[in-house]
């Protein structure tokens, strides 16, 4: 059984990776546009 803290940690890790991927793809997109 996962505790609430480990669930929150995994969720925050997933959110952080998604945000990083979005920022990276946005940066590449802007570079290609310019």
Provide a descriptive summary of the structure in words.
88% of the residues lie in helices and 0% in strands. By secondary structure, the chain is mainly α. The longest helix has 30 residues, at 4-33. The chain is rod-shaped and about 45 Å long.
Topology readout:
Layout (H helix, E strand, L loop, with lengths): L3 H30 L1
Decide which structural class fits the backbone: mainly alpha
* Low-confidence runs: none
* Beta strand count: 0
Report the radius of gyration as a whole number of Å: 15 Å
Distance between the termini: 50 Å
Largest sheet composition = none
Oligomerization status of the protein chains: single chain
CA-based shape: rod-shaped
Summary, kept brief:
The protein has one helix at 4-33.
Features:
34 residues, mainly alpha, 1 helix, 0% strand, rod-shaped, membrane, transmembrane, transmembrane helix
